[in-house]
Design brief:
Elements (H helix, E strand, L loop, with lengths): L5 H22 L5 H8 L2 H30 L1 H20 L4 H16 L2 H11 L2 H32 L10 H13 L13 H24 L4 H23 L13 H30 L5 H6 L2 H21 L2 H17 L9 H4 L1 H24 L6 H21 L1 H5 L5 H25 L8
């Protein structure tokens, strides 16, 4: 197994910590949603918006952030993102009503957009081949672990202190990463990329309008002008965004990159897989409290087996994918996760975690560990390292948009209420999305040529 130099170890540590805070805040909120709703009101609509306000700005601006990373330097962009994320986190914790909370969450997502592409770009720009595959495996293990351990940490804070402290968890990793960044000496790229600010604004407005319509249509109905007009405007803006990307000299979303086989097919697989992961995480975090009656801490503990398996196996899976190619892992892993999601159909009125949930978590964890590092490595390894910032931004934008849309459609998926029937409906949809990701990977992914 390839080993890291001291500089590469520092790069991996910086990349992991930078992404850790964004992934953690994306999932730590799930177990806090019932407590937020009880204190601030708003029911399932507030819960959806607390999640999606973060994902809208993260998804829409991550492409812009990828260009900024390539244009102004990964370290510089990451430092700004860390400082802004810390400030927005404090604003979230201090929010006194749903509107302020949602606005602060949107600001958090905007700051988080600066962190993810620049962190992965540090790895892909400084390492190639099996070393890069292993580094991505380590990055994947800890950042995905952050997504999975987030509900546990959030549950402890909700039960022992307050949901507000959930959003202050990231203060320590932000401080540590700022210190590590000061020690990292890497050549920054010359500014060769012109940043298309207008496209970033158009993309953000289009996504926001579409998601607003998807969330609010359950309450107001599609025939209401307040729904169909934003939906139509959002679709039009997104169409204009794609048209501009096809003609722009320095696009935020270089459409020709999707002509690279592993990049194009890998991002389609990402769309299905991360939609399933987001749906599964949201539903389990909320249902185990509101439906099964568990405490926030117990609901967070439910996904701990997935976290353990990710940390134990992801780095090795990344190294195996570098040696044997990613196709087998990207096919088998999602199919295993689909089986795990179907095991959640055993959850019944008489709730028993050990027989109804734990087996599903173990199977989901195994499949996830086999999938994520090979998926990331296949996609980013297909693109020249000089475009690593925008490549990682596109892939992360796809995964966040997947989560954004599936949470926006939550009421439709669960039939309006997250009761036992709604939970089972979500499990079936989750399994179908995972299976689609596996099939797409088998059809489209090929083993890249070995580096000399």
């Amino acid at each position: 197994m390839p080993t890291f130099t001291s500089v590469q170890r520092l790069v991996v540590a910086v990349a992991v910590l930078a992404s850790f805070v964004t992934f953690l805040d994306g999932t730590v909120v799930t177990v806090a949603l019932p407590a937020i709703s009880r204190e601030l009101g708003g029911g399932i609509l507030t819960q959806q918006w607390v999640v999606d306000a973060y994902l809208i700005t993260l998804s829409a601006l991550i492409l812009l952030a990828g260009s900024l990373s390539d244009a102004y330097g990964r370290v510089r962009v990451m430092r700004i993102g860390l400082l802004a994320f810390g400030a927005a986190s404090v604003a979230v914790a201090a929010a006194g009503d749903p509107l302020v909370l949602i606005i602060a969450r949107a600001a958090q997502g905007a700051a988080g957009a600066l962190l993810v592409p620049s962190s992965l770009a540090l790895i892909t720009a400084t390492m190639r081949g099996e070393v890069q595959a292993r580094a991505i495996g380590v990055w994947t293990a800890f950042t995905t672990g952050a997504q999975l351990v987030g509900p546990l940490m959030g549950g402890v804070f909700v039960d022992l202190l307050s949901w507000r402290f959930v959003f202050l968890i990231n203060v320590l990793p932000i401080a540590v990463n700022l210190i590590l960044l000061a020690r990292l000496r890497l050549p920054e790229p010359e500014r060769a990329v012109r940043v298309d600010w207008l496209s970033g604004v158009v993309c953000a407005l289009g996504l926001g309008a579409v998601v607003f319509a998807l969330i609010e249509q359950e309450r107001l109905g599609w025939s209401t002008p307040a729904i169909w007009m934003p939906a139509a405007a959002g679709v039009l803006l997104l169409a204009l965004f794609l048209r501009r990307q096809a003609r722009a000299r320095h696009p935020l979303l270089p459409l020709e990159m999707f002509g690279v086989r592993n990049f194009g097919w890998g991002n389609i697989a990402t769309l299905f897989i991360y939609a399933a992961l987001s749906l599964n995480g949201f539903v389990i975090g909320v249902y185990l409290q509101q439906g099964a009656g568990l405490s926030a801490t117990a609901a967070g503990l439910a996904s701990l087996p997935v976290t353990v398996l990710m940390i134990l196996l992801s780095s090795r899976a990344g190294a195996w994918a570098g040696r044997f190619g990613p196709r087998l892992f990207m096919t088998a892993g999602p199919l295993v996760m689909a089986a795990g999601a179907l095991l959640l159909l055993t959850v019944g009125g008489e709730f028993d975690y050990w027989w109804q949930v734990l087996p599903a978590m173990l199977v989901l964890g195994l499949g996830l560990a086999l999938t994520v590092a090979p998926l990331t490595s296949a996609i980013l390894g297909a693109i020249d390292e000089r475009r690593s910032g925008i490549a990682s931004a596109v892939n992360n934008a796809v995964s966040r948009v997947a989560g954004l849309l599936v949470v926006a459609l939550l009421s439709t998926i669960v039939g309006g209420a997250l009761d036992l029937d709604g939970f089972h409906s979500a499990a079936v949809v989750t399994a179908a999305l995972f299976a689609a990701g596996g099939v797409v990977s088998w059809i489209g992914i090929r083993r890249p040529p070995r580096e000399n």
